[in-house]
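Researcher: We're teaching a course module on how sequence relates to structure. For the next exercise, students receive a sequence and then see the predicted structure as tokens, so they can try to spot secondary structure elements on their own. Here is the exercise chain.
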Amino acid sequence: MKRAKRLYILFGVLVAVCIATVCVLQYDQKQEEIQTSGESILTVDADTVSALDWETETASLAFHKDGSWLYDEDEAFPVSEEKISDLLAEFEDFRAAFVIENVTDFAQYGLDEPVCTIDITTSDTSYEIQLGDYSSMDSQRYVSIGDGNVYLAVSDPLDAFDLELSDMIAHDEVPSFDEVSSIRFDGPEAYDVVWQEYTEDNTYTLCSNDVYYKQDGDDLLPLDTSSVESYLSSISNTDFSNYVTYNVTDEELASYGLDDPDVTVTVEYTELDSEDETPSTFTLSVSRDPEELAAQTEEEDASSAAASSSSSGESEEEEITAYARINDSQIVYQISGSSYEALMACTYDDLRHTEVLTADFADVTGFDISLEGQVYTITSKESGDDKTFLFGDEELDISGLETALTAVNADEFTDESPSQKEELGMTVTLDSETHPKVQIEFYRYDGAHCLAVVDGTPFALVPRSDVVDLIEAVNTIVL
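Model: And here is the predicted structure for the students to work with:
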């Protein structure tokens, strides 16, 4: 009997606890009502904002506007106006997917210790936006704007505000060099490059694609257009994001080697997508770290004797620390070693043609070829797509000779006169009143190279294997 009575009592207690639990759950549900929203919960006019600051787990940044945007801790810091605009754009029409009303426990949404707090001050009010936990179920973040509710934001502001100071800098702009009129190099060589449109009466070049020329007194020396454009692209493609200082002093310039740069490139250009298309000037100064360069030079001098006496060891790849400055900017950037090497490759030999025949093969009309004491003549008839080459009266396929000749390129430029036997000579006739022919000769030099002479002037050392291929192409025709 007593046992039954005890069971009734325990059962009654259990029922009471269950009823109480249900009541609490119903109460909490009544207190925190979750509703679908989709409406704008905050609208901030960016033009009225005078201050913006935020604090995350990794950074605390504050900016104010005084005509332009300034960094509170150092007004010399060049603030990116575009970046500030992007941040404020988050709240021009800030929308919530869901709203949780009558919240009593902000901790369950991570809002007791926000991962980010954003303060915005306008001309007539201020806002505090707190970012809490990220709901993996909803793929949205809990947000508080101080009105007692919690919102699941349509877009996560932390994606925009998870920044360091370096993300806020206004980097120097590098143009795309759509239309270049001149280039000035001051470095390994000092010279000017001018742009000149190609015309049929151009006396400086055989190549119709040539538009850039090195100014050599009253003369113009043609440069390879693709090489010049590749060099300009190397400027545009250099990563100017790793700044080492944003307010450089004269003393600091010297520590980066930029008081006397290794190379300074000045480009006169016009941006074609610009509304006014006015001519502009871009200057880039580049230097290697002076201390690193001095140490490298000292090491090379100390090991030169050992290196010359041993040929078995392979030298380690050199590490390069280099810096760059755009125009007269106060920002100095550290650039990669590969970018430094690409920007230093600006001598005449770096940018000139490497081909022994720079004319378009479509302009070739014939050959007089000297080989082993014999002279062979190849002629042509018709023109354009109907052009046919002949050896004697026999029509021939010229493609093998074309491939072999156009493949001969300089390994190393030289002004050394030939001192050994001529391997092959050819006079190439062209369909041009200005340049009717070009004389090309190949002389023995060593086991790996022949010396190429073009129009009587030593040109370059070319691979001997390429000359052998050219000789075989000739023999295929004439033998």
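Model: If you want an answer key for the exercise: Residues 271 and 459 are 37 Å apart (CA to CA). The first helix runs from residue 2 to 31.
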